[in-house]
Amino acid sequence: MRQPTHHDIIQLFGEISDHRILEILETGANLEQLEEAAARLKGQDDVMGDARIPLVGEAAQVYDILIQDQELARQIEAER
After folding, report:
1. C or N: which end of the chain has fewer Cβ atoms within 10 Å?
2. What b/e readout covers 38-61, taking b as 16+ CB neighbours within 10 angstroms?
3. Average pLDDT over every residue of 29-52
4. pTM
5. N- to C-terminal Cα separation, the chain
6. Could you state, in order of their start, the residue ranges of all structural domains in the chain?
7. Which of 23, 27, 20 is nearest to 3 (CA)?
8. What is the DSSP letter of 55?
9. Which position has the higher pLDDT, 6 or 42?
């Protein structure tokens, strides 16, 4: 499977900072792994509910990178 490009990442995750894109690229995740992380973020993998398989490897690293921004946004919103 080919390695993702900057454009691929923007298409999967929307507008995110160049810093986050670089972090994602540095994980070495391939396009399939990015799609796994994107599905988890969007809740599309929730078909199995609590029994879903946890993300591992590069997909988990990408998810962790992206969830940081969502958690920060929630914290800022909660403080308002």
Report:
1. C
2. bbbbeeeeeeeeeeeeebeebbbb
3. 77
4. 0.78
5. 44
6. 6-79
7. 27
8. P
9. 6
